[in-house]
Automatic annotation (TrEMBL), chains A, B:
Residues 1-21 are annotated as: Disordered. SUPFAM superfamilies: P-loop containing nucleoside triphosphate hydrolases (SSF52540). It is an enzyme of class 2 (transferase). Keywords: Transferase. This is Cob(I)yrinic acid a,c-diamide adenosyltransferase. Pfam families: CobA_CobO_BtuR (PF02572). It comes from Dermacoccus abyssi.
Amino acid sequence: MPQGQTPSTPDDGLTTRQRRNRPLVVVHHGAGKGKSTAAFGLALRAWNQGWSIGVFQFVKSAKWRIGEQAALEALGEVHTSTGQGGPVEWHKMGSGWSWSRRAGSEEDHAADALEGWREIQRRLAAETHGFYVLDEFTYPIKWGWIDPHEVAETLSSRPGHQHVVITGRDPHPALIEVADLVTEMTKVKHPFDSGQKGQRGIEW
Amino acid sequence: MPQGQTPSTPDDGLTTRQRRNRPLVVVHHGAGKGKSTAAFGLALRAWNQGWSIGVFQFVKSAKWRIGEQAALEALGEVHTSTGQGGPVEWHKMGSGWSWSRRAGSEEDHAADALEGWREIQRRLAAETHGFYVLDEFTYPIKWGWIDPHEVAETLSSRPGHQHVVITGRDPHPALIEVADLVTEMTKVKHPFDSGQKGQRGIEW
């Protein structure tokens, strides 16, 4: 449990309160389920704090996140109409980022991914959101489309109080290095192995 | 990805469609973060399907789930007012289950836990919910308060289309045996290790 004494007290010049409230870079990786769903579960906590939520999907087709997107956007509407929680923005690659004019140019995934990252850099510099989900962001890095060291530098020097959660398999070591919290989701048992395919409400 | 050919096609007399839509028992365990947050992330998908969501918290104090609870209950209110998504019920042990008259009897945790499980059995028999989260349910089983074999029998014989997600460390082998999908969350790196305590919006 995160209460009580920590194993060590770092000599970083911060008070316990300052250290406690330091914003985090979180990585969810591994071959198991739950990397993205745990990120969206964290987004519920962030929403309840009234923070602005920004979700950036780097790989999956619209189908695979439709449940989370619909639910989180509904929470964004709750914020708009009642003031409860925080605002929610959801952006995805593939059908064109919503801030981009390049919609339809699905051919050039590498350029799309880099364009998404450039926008995230601008938002981090402007402190646009309190909580970012960079969903499946490990893949465009793995495929050489985005420079992992530039990502690490941007994250470690970001201003203000901005949490960033990155999901996906095979994170580059530079991401692990810059992360404060890393969890590996390991597959122990999966219905696919016994002949069951994905289903609505569970996989999307 | 859960599309395409599965490694084996079981000789269970089911069509692919029947097998695909078979309801799941899911277990999230391990020492890492994300067991409960991934369960609540799945609840977003279930909500979007219009399923009734039932959350049953077996251990943690109200503080630790306040973000998820507020967000999921807000989604339940969206359902009530607009018809989008499904209804949400949230019940917790400790301050008394909401269906129970024993509120205030916080001394007898074992009896409280068993009472919660009995209610879940009644709901499973009545097909009350489409999606259940039994949060931290592994612990009352581990502590001998609830019989794991009875749990396994109840889960494996439950009627209709009811998904059940169980979270917590050290699940009894009978739970793993009855589960369709098991993920272990492994701690790779945690800010607590470098002297950072839990913070709002991340831990609760």
